[in-house]
Amino acid sequence: MNWLLPEYIADALPAEAARIEQLRRTVLDHFRAGGFEFVMPPMLEYLESLLTGAGQDLNLRTFKLVDQLSGRTMGVRADITPQAARIDAHLLNHQGVTRLCYCDSVLHTLPASVSAGREPLQIGAELYGFAGIEADLAIIRLMAGAFAKIKLPLSRVDLGHVGIFRALAEAAGLAPDAEENVLSLLRAKDVPGLVEACAGVASPYREALQALPLLYGGVDVLVRAQAELPALPAITAALDGLRHLVEAAPELPFSIDLSDLRGYHYHNGVVFAAYCPDYPAAIALGGRYDGAGKAFGRARPATGFSMDLREVVRLVAPGKAQGAILAAWAGHDKTLAGLIAALREQGEIVVELLPGETACEGPLCDRKLVQVGGQWIIEAIQED
To answer: Helix, strand or coil for residue 38?
Structure first.
């Protein structure tokens, strides 16, 4: 059965592909209007480049192969973010702020979730060179604006900050393996497991670690967190940053989740996850990953977000498809050929039937060119 594709790999047929392309153009135009420049990194790179810095969590998700020219191990990218960081740090070499965007396929060894495929069409934006919370706010607003452009409402935007757990783990003196264990329990919101794992941790850090999975909900959680967490400088700064985001963008449906630690090993600041109505998984993910580019010779502050257009297109209400015009084969008829060209120039889809072709099986033609009294006119195609 040569027509079968691997599991979690799928074709995009004409109707879906057209919708994906429309969304791609809409979102990229939105990024461009904000000053984000489009880049197109390669599908393949040497593995060290893909798995360095922001990409270190991607090892198990990356397909690997041997380069026949150099003998070195290469990887098929599983995320474009590390590539954008390399471009900023090593190729563009701007001294100030750099704004980049991208849209292309990535490949995963395993699907990220039961609803995801292994070839996401990743679209995103990254902002380099500004360490202030204003950059995080700009990226979150850019993301929200993209959803507004494609008419997909946001039900909530979860905010977190990996610096809070990092500060607690350091103050509590957690060994690396203990830190990883507590991290996995926090991600799973396994409170009983967390109580057991933190049994030997000194107070007040034991209570603070156990409180993290319960510190989620509305923005009032920030007030609770201020009261329940130790007043370590890093925690105070993190909560102040989150409060600034909430107060600066009251139009956004913010909520708080201080145990959302996805990407913990490369994020080091604000993280966020966007959700849409009636869809359980996050539809867009982002956050701060300062130090991006260090492995390429230049450490830079960085923040950004991305989403999978293949996933997004399933949630966006389909618009009315543009109807096409059916035309006879023009042949040597310069008048008909000129009319077809003029209609196409105006943005119309015109399907010119080939000799012997009696019908068009796609796209959907709702009008046709007919000759009446020596003149070509457009008339509606009546359904049988």
So the answer is: strand
